């Protein structure tokens, strides 16, 4: 895990700015929102192939929207590691406001992603950053 709650260590989560928000030039506005509430520990662009999208959304594999979701998510993502004491819950809460403002009309055009649990955050951060999730300053 990325933190140890019993020792009061900081908590981390993965936020993703999805392809539709990048193409629509909303990335800067979304990053500004993130910076108001969280510490940005690291970020990177990555090109997500269909195979990578299927791996990322594996928990939805048996749902009827899986194929449409994964095909729609192929493209450039901005993966961001956020940190604060309750970041998983707070970023998930904030994603609904960000989505309301920046989402498109399709299922996959919901602008941002937030890990839904500490365990998901751990798995997702490792997918994008391995064990080097903190940017050396």
The CATH class assignment is Alpha Beta
Number of domains: 1
Question: What distance lies between the first and last C-alpha atoms, to the nearest angstrom?
Answer: 22 Å
| Spatial arrangement of strands, main beta sheet | 2-3-1-4
Please write the string of helix (H) and strand (E) elements.
Answer: EHHEHHEHEH
**Which runs of at least 5 residues are low in confidence (pLDDT < 50)?**
1-7
Question: What is the average per-residue confidence, as pLDDT, rounded to a whole number?
Answer: 89
Q: Got a strand count?
A: 4
- Could you give a short account of the major beta sheet? 4 strands, antiparallel
Residue fraction in strands: 15-25%
Structural class: alpha+beta
Care to give the gist of this entry?
By secondary structure, the chain is α+β, with helices and mostly antiparallel strands. It is built from 6 helices and 4 strands, in the order βααβααβαβα. It has one domain (13-129): Nucleoside diphosphate kinase-like domain (Alpha-Beta Plaits, 2-Layer Sandwich), CATH 3.30.70.
Describe this entry's structure for a reader.
This protein is of the alpha+beta class. It has a single domain, classed as Nucleoside diphosphate kinase-like domain (Alpha-Beta Plaits), CATH 3.30.70.141. It is 42% helix and 22% strand. Strands 2-3-1-4 form a 4-stranded antiparallel β-sheet, with helices on both faces. The model is unreliable at 1-7 (pLDDT under 50).
């Amino acid at each position: 895990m990325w933190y140890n709650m019993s020792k009061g260590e900081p908590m981390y989560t993965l936020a993703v700015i999805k392809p539709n928000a990048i193409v629509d030039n909303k990335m800067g506005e979304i990053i500004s929102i993130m910076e108001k509430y969280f510490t940005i520990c690291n970020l990177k662009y990555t090109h997500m192939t269909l195979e990578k999208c299927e791996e990322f959304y594996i928990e939805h594999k048996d749902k009827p929207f899986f194929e449409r979701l994964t095909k729609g998510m192929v493209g450039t993502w901005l993966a961001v590691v956020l940190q604060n004491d309750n970041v998983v819950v707070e970023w998930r809460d904030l994603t609904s406001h960000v989505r309301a403002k920046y989402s498109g009309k399709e299922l996959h055009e919901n602008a941002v992603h937030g890990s839904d649990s500490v365990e998901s955050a751990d798995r997702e951060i490792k997918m994008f950053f391995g064990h080097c999730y903190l940017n050396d300053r």
